[in-house]
Amino acid sequence: MRYSSLLSEVGSLAVSRFLRLAALSLLLGGLLPACSDDDENEPEAAAPAKITVPQQALHPEGIQYDESRKHFLVSSRTQGKIGTVKDDSTYTVFADDPRLISTIGLNLDATRQRLLVAVSDNGANTTRSTSATLRQLAAVAIYNSTNGSLIRYVDLGGLRSGQNHFANDIAVDAQGNAYITDSLSPIIYKVDAQGNASIFLENAQLSGGTGFGLNGIVFHPDGYLLVAKANDGTLFKVPVSNPASFTKVTVPATQSLTGADGLLLFDAQTLLLVSGSQARVLRLTSTDAWVTAGVNGTFITGAVSPTTITRRSPSDAYVLYPYQATSPRFAIVKVGF
């Protein structure tokens, strides 16, 4: 009887212990979050169709998307400073300097962790513009794209003193050389990876006459630049190894590129072109290495003064709507054809 009672007692203790452990397990299960492979592989939130940024009179001209930091970078024609924009519309100052009178085109050279900024003065920034810089300034400010620290500031207008200047847009080649358009002089500048500036190409055909001439510029991996002229919509192909041999890209006369501003080389055969005066983004394609090209897609923006465009993903591009110089906001909008 005593042996039987002992077994019964041991059994009761085991059951009691099991029940306590089961209760504890249920309690912890309710407190701890569930974890599964599905949670770890959740897709990122879809890119927004439009980001409206409540910044008074910023009037950004240039835009780039920094994939590593998940934000846009924008310039400011009226205030000069460079800022970042997140998908939730949050704007933060990234870099500023008294020499940044009007910041225009941007180029994010992610490989070298550089942000290149075209600097000009057309009088839009009333607090920083001076008689000495008005329509005389052309420069490139180069920043560390990680922390916003200034790497160097390169004067360009001094290469051709006595002429009107407006540094507008920037392209960077595989070696880190930068090419900058001047909208008020028929010049494309070059700044090498060490910061040395020179005249890359100067030709009367690049002039805009009394208006804006050269504007958007991109580097094609086959070794040439594609450059747009705003006043008449001419598109040039400029070999990097022999710029004097530049040619005009033939586009059907019925497909006007007048008002050409920012460019985005989407792939080797596809170029997106923003036309501010036409209030649209045009998709151009070429099958003969940009000897000829044609428009095969149009995205209508409306009267929002679109300026330029950036790639966000392999399939997405976003165009910048600065609105008017005194507007209380600007917008970044996903392009669809």
UniProtKB/TrEMBL annotation:
Gene3D superfamilies: TolB, C-terminal domain. It comes from the Bacteria. SUPFAM superfamilies: Calcium-dependent phosphotriesterase. Transmembrane segments: none annotated. PANTHER family: MESOCENTIN, PTHR31460. This is SMP-30/gluconolactonase/LRE family protein.
